[in-house]
Amino acid sequence: MKTVHIKASTEYDVLIGRNLLSSAGEKCASLFGKCRAMIVADDTVAEIYLETVRNSFENAGIPAFDFVFPAGEESKNKDILFEILEAAAENELGRNDIMVALGGGVTGDLAGLASALYQRGIKLVQLPTTLLAAVDSSVGGKTAVDLENGKNLAGAFHQPSLVICDVDTFATLSEKVFSCGMAEVIKYGVLFDRELFEETKNGITDIEKIVEKCVVLKGKCVAEDEFDFGSRRLLNLGHTFAHSIEKMSGYEIAHGEAVAIGMVMASELSAEIGICDSSLADEIRSALIKNNLPVSCELGFEEIRSGMISDKKRNGEEIAFILPESIGKCVIRNIKF
Ligand code: NAD
Ligand code: GLY
């Protein structure tokens, strides 16, 4: 098992390894002592992993109850958020108890925000079961739900107290959901690490090592700029376009797919304004295609632009774009769009 320590306002460990779900309860018991757990999962993940996780908590002496919601981005809304909060209150979850997010980024964002709000904040444990959640959303404390007007518009920073990433759970992912995680891995390569970028082109052999590398890179950004006013914004490479693409497609295009398309758009914009050579966009496109990711969509430029208007990354007339200069180096530019 690998351990990455994250230094934010709350410091915590990210444990990465195999067969970790069945010992999640034990790890929580030794870290948090006497407490109860509320496990939040979507119905797809609950069917496969909930029993293992619940048993692991019960066997470790942590009484557990669960909240299960319909899988999909459509559930990342204020209604499900408040259903989680009501369920926590009905079950008398207390301030020393823990909320456990078992699932992908949607579950992590929902349970994350619920744990930030419930009784003004209780401990959160992230058990990511998608590659995307493992390398990105379970670490760093961003939590949110979508509003009618756009993605992630209501949220809070609330760091988890522990992240346990059992990479065995990736075995049950669909090819598409696995690829969505690869979009974020490629993002880290484009941002910081040419070697990691090259690895994504040749087929991943050691997934634990890849998750560890990404979590270390994310941990550095979070330690440097936890609240996202400076260098952490680099992690939004492709996201300015992606959030609009997701919204304008009615969430038919998944987050990871939209990030892939967004990274191509960002590199094309970067070439257009002379920050990089146009061959860079080709290189990024080719890595994404090798990982079965889309590199374009049917939405028109005007549609995507109008969807960006409500994005958080907008500042007055300008939008902060993350633009690749070369593989391993990106810059932030405010551009009138
Ligand atoms: P997701 O949580 O919807 O999971 C995708 C699908 O995979 C779902 O249908 C889910 O039921 C299924 N699934 C999950 N784990 C599984 C498993 N092990 N086996 C079989 N099926 C499984 O989506 P995602 O791609 O994990 O995350 C996308 C979300 O994360 C978006 O809402 C995005 O905005 C958010 N996000 C947040 C951050 C952050 O920092 N908070 C960062 C990146 C993305
Ligand atoms: N996913 C971008 C961030 O955590 O900042």
How would you sum up this structure, described in words?
The chain is an alpha/beta fold and 337 residues long. It has helices spanning 24-32, 43-59, 78-90, 105-117, 131-137, 175-192, 194-201, 207-224, 239-248, 255-272, 278-290, 301-308, and strands spanning 2-7, 11-17, 37-42, 64-69, 98-103, 123-128, 142-147, 150-157, 162-166, 314-315, 318-326, 329-336. The protein has a 7-stranded mixed sheet, sandwiched between helices. It has a 3-stranded antiparallel sheet with strand order 10-11-12. A two-stranded antiparallel ribbon has the order 7-8. Helix 1 (24-32) crosses helix 2, helix 5 (131-137) packs parallel to helix 8 and helix 9 (239-248) packs across helix 10 (255-272). The longest helix is centred in the middle third of the chain and has 18 residues, at 175-192. Bound molecules: nicotinamide-adenine-dinucleotide and glycine.
Strand and helix order: EEHEHEHEHEHEEEHHHHHHHEEE
CATH architecture of the largest domain: 3-Layer(aba) Sandwich
What's the total number of strands? 12
User: What is the overall silhouette?
Assistant: globular
Mean pLDDT comes to 95
Distance between the termini: 46 Å
DSSP helix fraction: 40-55%
**CATH class bucket of the largest domain:** Alpha Beta
For the CA atoms, what is the radius of gyration? Answer: 19 Å
- CATH names the topology of the largest domain as Rossmann fold
